[in-house]
Amino acid sequence: MKTIIIIPTYNEAENLPRVWQALCQLPIEVNLLVVDDNSPDGTGNVADRLREEHPGRIDVLHRKGKLGLGSAYIEGFRKAIELGADAIGQMDADFSHPIDKIPLLMDCLQDVDFVIGSRYVPGGSLDERWPFWRKGLSAFGNYYARSILGLKIRDVTGGFRLWKRETLAAMPLNRVRSNGYVFQVEMGYLATLLGFRCVETPIHFADRRWGDSKMSFRIQIEAAYRTWLLPGFYKDLRRKIRS
What we know:
The chain contains nine helices and nine strands. The protein has helices at 16-24, 43-53, 69-82, 102-109, 132-149, 165-170, 182-193, 217-233, 235-242, and strands spanning 3-9, 31-36, 58-62, 87-90, 114-118, 125-126, 161-164, 198-202, 204-205. The strands form two sheets. The protein has a seven-stranded mixed β-sheet, sandwiched between helices. It has a two-stranded parallel sheet with strand order 6-9. The N and C termini lie far apart (37 Å).
């Protein structure tokens, strides 16, 4: 099964070679697709060098600027499908997601349509160095989105996911409007509306080791607001379900 892991990057030149090294140490072969938003620190150049050093294992999409997480993943999904991926993963470049859990996600994918590496199912956890307010904000964000959208997914904001090719190919990706971190919420909501089956497997979510976090208060406010809009975006699908 050809597996492509998509990593959107912006100023991750320090992390990217380490991430690739960790992926190469897995007991299974995975390919990497880097979607870089013209990082000022030269992440795109680092990705190109890795591609040249590992032909056939790494692909790179260069974008003209910082265009957002959601559109980066949508472009990445389409490219991965074009490249013939059977399984398509989402992962951050900052080591917050446990790379060694990718084989487990692949095993789980056999019986469902997509898998989420979850902080909020039994066995899942957050970095113990996080302050109480940060853990509370993360938990509340998930509760908030689940309650508004009626989702059973526990970690609806989680970005460590693996999808079957057929699942993404059947989703109307051109309708996905969210471009910040609420993109993860919208994808989970849309997949659920379409009847796709999901399983969550526990992970430990670590704080980034190197570089600066992209999360900001503005991004959190945007996510809270846009979550309310999602049912309206897909009211036609909700009507079909009710009928």
